[in-house]
Write a structure and sequence with these properties.
The complex is a heterodimer. Chain A has three helices and ten strands. By secondary structure, chain A is of the alpha+beta class. In chain A, strands 1-2-3-9-5-6 form a six-stranded antiparallel sheet. A four-stranded mixed sheet of chain A has the order 8-7-4-10, with no helix packed on it. Chain B is of the alpha+beta class. Chain B has one domain: Immunoglobulin-like (Sandwich). Chain B is about 25% helix and about 30% strand. In chain B, the strands form two sheets. In chain B, strands 1-2-8-4-5 form a five-stranded antiparallel sheet. In chain B, strands 7-6-3-9 form a four-stranded mixed sheet, with no helix packed on it. Classes of the chains: A alpha+beta, B alpha+beta. At the A-B interface, helix 1, helix 2, strand 5 and strand 9 of A face helix 1, strand 4, strand 5 and strand 8 of B.
Chain lengths: ~190, ~180
């Protein structure tokens, strides 16, 4: 093979490999400051000038304009509490009590990171909208089958949930990996 | 081709891959932020976005429970002044982002007892620094380009119209020194 062809091949393959590594990092990489609390994942460096290029790239693609952790902590779940990927062909119970924050919400997003179209234009539950039991706990249903109360609709497709904690309490800020967060339990699939 | 020659070409390929990976990783936030500035509209103007729903496609993972007002900025012609009414009966915050996605400043309703926001944002290399006063906050952006974002929580659906009217009072424009 001529030198020019070899050089071109090395450049093309190198560029392709480099772009693939970036894509894979942004899509699948957890980032150097990632934490897990059950199925909920977060990053200590989100929104911060101290965040590195990996965190910054992930935020740019999946959480642009996120506030820093002193103001808001964002948790995202791609799986249920058993580790199985969230899928709108199944129904899930999200069970817990109010997280330690001034205000919180749980919102469903499609794989394109946008809100999921549904017949009732409902996308979330929050501290203001959730209905609680007498003991203060709540149970919300996530899935494509309609429910009257505490329902976060999805399509019959993979999705994710984001839990926002605005003005998080001191305990969550200091130990975001040990916050008492809702569990996500699969109720069944159709 | 000899084994040594193969090793050389593989090393070159991996070097190119590493450089492209690093370059694209560093460039990605700037590209996404600049695309967002363009999508939101004119610079140095406040854009009051409609409540997020499934048709909202400007910024990823919007919250349907918050109302967003955004001002993409360009400080090359001078400082900007942001004025807004601060509600104290719901969550409200003004936050600033540089062109590398970093949230470099945030002020929420609990961190101030003011009812009105008067915030001046100036460039890092501003010729004439604006002085803060009792009624005016002054911050210096780490970059000439960035975004100011005001979030207002819809904490009561029955009060939506009132909350929306109040947040639409927010403005963003060139800072004009008073005589």
């Amino acid at each position: 093979m001529k030198f020019g062809l070899k050089l071109a091949a090395a450049l093309v393959v190198g560029i392709a490999l480099g772009l693939f590594a970036t894509w894979a990092t942004v899509i699948y990489g957890a980032g150097p400051n990632a934490l897990s609390d059950g199925p909920w994942q977060t990053s200590l460096a989100t929104g911060s000038a101290k965040s590195g290029p990996y965190t910054r790239a992930k935020v740019a693609m999946h959480g642009l304009l996120a506030l820093n952790r002193s103001e808001t902590i964002y948790y995202t779940a791609y799986t249920d509490s058993s580790g199985a990927p969230l899928d709108g062909a199944c129904a899930y119970d999200v069970v817990g009590h109010d997280p330690d924050a001034r205000w919180w919400s749980i919102t469903a997003y499609g794989t394109d990171d946008f809100l999921i179209p549904n017949p009732v234009d409902r996308y979330s539950i929050s501290k203001n909208s959730v209905l609680r039991a007498a003991d203060g706990t709540f149970s919300a249903t996530v899935g494509s089958a309609a429910h009257v109360q505490n329902w976060i609709p999805t399509a019959r497709a993979p999705f994710s949930l984001t839990l926002r904690l605005y003005n998080p309490g001191a305990s969550v800020q200091s130990e975001p990996g040990n916050a008492s967060l809702p569990v996500i339990v699969k109720d069944g699939c159709t | 081709m000899s084994a040594r020659a193969w090793a050389g070409w593989i090393a070159l390929t991996l070097l190119v891959a590493a450089l492209v990976h690093a370059g694209s990783l560093y460039a990605l936030p700037y590209v996404v932020m600049n695309r967002t500035f363009s999508i939101l509209g004119d610079r140095n103007m406040m854009h009051h976005m409609a409540r997020a729903d499934a048709n909202s496609r400007k910024v990823v993972r919007p919250s349907p429970d918050l109302l967003y007002s955004a001002c993409p900025y360009d400080l090359s012609k001078g400082p900007l002044e942001i004025r807004a009414t601060i509600p104290h009966d719901t969550y409200w915050s003004v936050s600033t982002f540089d062109d590398d996605t970093n949230n470099w400043y945030v002020l929420d309703d609990r961190q101030t007892n003011r009812n009105k926001l008067d915030l001046v944002v100036q460039a890092p290399d501003s010729d004439h620094e604006v002085a803060a006063t009792e009624h005016r906050l002054v911050v210096t952006s780490p970059s000439r380009h960035g975004l100011i974002l005001i979030r207002t929580l819809i904490n009561d659906e029955d009060r939506f119209d009132q909350i929306d009217r109040t947040r639409r009072l927010a403005t963003c424009g060139a800072y004009v020194p008073s005589e």
